[in-house]
Amino acid sequence: MCCCLQFREGQVKQTKDSALLSTVDLMKKSEKKEQEEEKGVKVKEKKLVKKLYPNSRLFRKWGDDLSEEEQKEAEDLFQRYGYNAFLSDRLPLNRDIPDTRPPRCAEKQYPEDLPSLSVILIYLDEALSVIKRAIRGIIDKTPARLLREIILVDDHSSNGLFGIQLAVGLKIRHSEQLGLTQARLTGWKAAVGDVVAILDAHIEVHVQWAEPLLARIKEDRTVILTPVFDKVDFDDLIVIPYMANADGFDWALWCRYEAFRPEWYALEDESQPGKSPSVMGILVADRKFFGEIGSLDGGMKTYGGENVELGIRVWLCGGSIEVIPCSKVAHIERFHKPYALDLSALVRRNALRVAEVWMDDYKYNVEVAWNLPIGNHGIDIGDVSERKKLRERLKCKPFQWYLDNVYPMLELLQDLLGYGLINDRWPAKCVDQGPAPGSTPILYGCHFFSSQHCYYLTDGKLYIGGIQSHKYSSNNCLVDPGSGVSPGLYQCNLAQQKKLHMFWDFKQGGQIQNRDTKRCLEVVLGDLYPRLVLQQCSGQRWTIQHVITAQKRYDWTVMNYQR
């Protein structure tokens, strides 16, 4: 079922304006009533109140004046939504947020004849006041002549909001939870505007947010855009300005912000669009081109990786991705997300799917990043045959072109002899980077997270605590300081500058011996627990989880040479 606020072609302007005014009036009446109720509450005398949740992240910098009952309500809502819904319910729907755009943005003029816009708001278990504030801001800050419709897509919320009438009408509701990708596809299929903006519902748009997006798509319909996000703190809901950055990712396909390419900075105009390897989740596109390019991969499950898949596909298949600094959207960063308590398994599955379809022989980088055996990860990624046919039909470029021309800062994970967990005679204990990365590694109970991921390279370096995916980052190298019994962890570039002893000899099932000092990494039994030391070699044997074959190393060498 699809019910949404729509302004169809052929309606007279008066009807369009009346629809918008009616919507705004309804929301203003609702807001006025809320404000009157708030004014009717007597101001409480300040007094010492027992802190019921001293360890809650919600109350770190907010809520000192709340009564015990209010604390209970606020904490309950926080656990439900992942942000301060208690405070949101008490803020005006049209609250002022700072204009954080680059100064030149306010001076820009945009054409009158811009494409029409469908705004799609996606949500799952969202506070009603947050949804209302998003709608109110979109209506207030988008010219009526451009706003064709607002579509709400509810991915089967469990908080009872489906029966609540919103000022824009009803919404599309999934009969079961399908995940972000399917919710976005549902909204796109229902849209009729020339351009679609697919947004989370926990956002607030800034002034003149839509015009720069629509103007850029009017110039080039093959560009997929993303605004610049400002952060809304989950506890006090204060807007924190963010500068424009490219939307990147690592080999595990976790998103990250990073600098634009040097040519953007050479413009010396921070209001100009910047090329980006990917999108960060919120996207704006020509509705028809979005379909032509394959929209979104419906085989992606629940959450994670869908934005990277879109970015790679668009670049390889005839489009481009840009960040628009003059379009800003404030986005609440939830403390926890409603889709799952542990997102890593979902992101891993989706990342492997992206790698299989789009990364050619470079897909091994994703497997290594997730600490999986190369070529045999054993994880069901679903049927990818249709997506591979799409790639053939669109005559997309090879992934190597993407590495060379779009994301050259993505570092190949090569020259590896082995990777994964390292342990010796205590199979339940693994080498770990320790509580303070960059100091002293420890022996700790095996938990399989990145702090225990180790990488042994052909040149003898031994990384502990994960591996970096970018050329501008440095890994943490195991070193022998030359004195004392404790091993050290240093950034590899720093260890090299200081001429620390950072090269090791290690074969599967053998000792780990420093090439310079000839001391070995070994385990001794301390007073309370076993610990790592450097000492004269006694023949202790170590194993690493995954060993790279000589054939695989040869394949990597060939790929690197071809690149």
UniProtKB/TrEMBL annotation:
This is Polypeptide N-acetylgalactosaminyltransferase. One of its GO terms (molecular function) is carbohydrate binding. Signal peptide: none annotated. Its cofactor is Mn(2+). Belongs to the glycosyltransferase 2 family. GalNAc-T subfamily. GO terms for biological process: protein O-linked glycosylation. InterPro entries: GalNAc-T (IPR045885), Glyco_trans_2-like (IPR001173), Nucleotide-diphossugar_trans (IPR029044), Ricin_B-like_lectins (IPR035992), Ricin_B_lectin (IPR000772). Pathway: Protein modification; protein glycosylation. Its EC number is 2.4.1.-. It is a single-pass type II membrane protein. Residues 118-233 form the Glycosyltransferase 2-like domain. Its main location: Golgi. It holds the Pfam family Ricin_B_lectin. Keywords: Disulfide bond, Glycoprotein, Glycosyltransferase, Golgi apparatus, Lectin, Manganese, Membrane, Metal-binding, Signal-anchor, Transferase, Transmembrane, Transmembrane helix. It is found in: Golgi apparatus membrane. It comes from Poecilia mexicana. Residues 420-542 form the Ricin B lectin domain. The keyword Transcription regulation does not apply.
